[in-house]
């Protein structure tokens, strides 16, 4: 992605386009490149913003879903954003849900895709095999229905993370926090319009998770994408963007 990373205060972020703010929250092994097609499409009609979540920069004590949600709160306040369209993939969806539960007045809509918060199979529940690139490649491929989406560049990014002892420890800390921070008892209080876009072949947050979110969040709609895994905005961007655009247009 050839977009410029901006800096303001202690925050680093990408920002493209003008209009209502569309804030994107990446996952545990997420990167800006995960949202390339989404940014290219929606910058025409929205102010698309991706804060770089400090997955590896917080203290171990703060390296949690709650810690990242506090970071997002500070970022949105710093940028003076209101009527936010919030979108999160995987851990980013979980962080977004915690934010909405605490600050519903700031959020116009929330979109979840492959979100944690109820149940997830992850890479981080045990110590990743450092130095074993083949293991990392296979685990990265499990993110997608089509293993070819796990390019060499993507595998290299994940490999670099788990080969750093401190980064690997923080991945484990975040993964365990996501498992412990179950939102099942709180989701029925969310009144924000919610869009669930889910890969039918997601093995990390399986289809039953999407169905549970749909049952628990009152004002929600669920859209399935066939032959698609845990990151629909990467694997089938055209179909994902079409669903998202129709949902956002209803609430613009």
UniProtKB/TrEMBL annotation:
Keywords: Hydrolase. One of its GO terms (biological process) is acylglycerol catabolic process. GO terms for cellular component: membrane. Residues 21-235 form the AB hydrolase-1 domain. It comes from the Bacteria. GO terms for molecular function: monoacylglycerol lipase activity. InterPro entries: AB_hydrolase_1, AB_hydrolase_fold, AB_hydrolase_sf. This is Alpha/beta hydrolase.
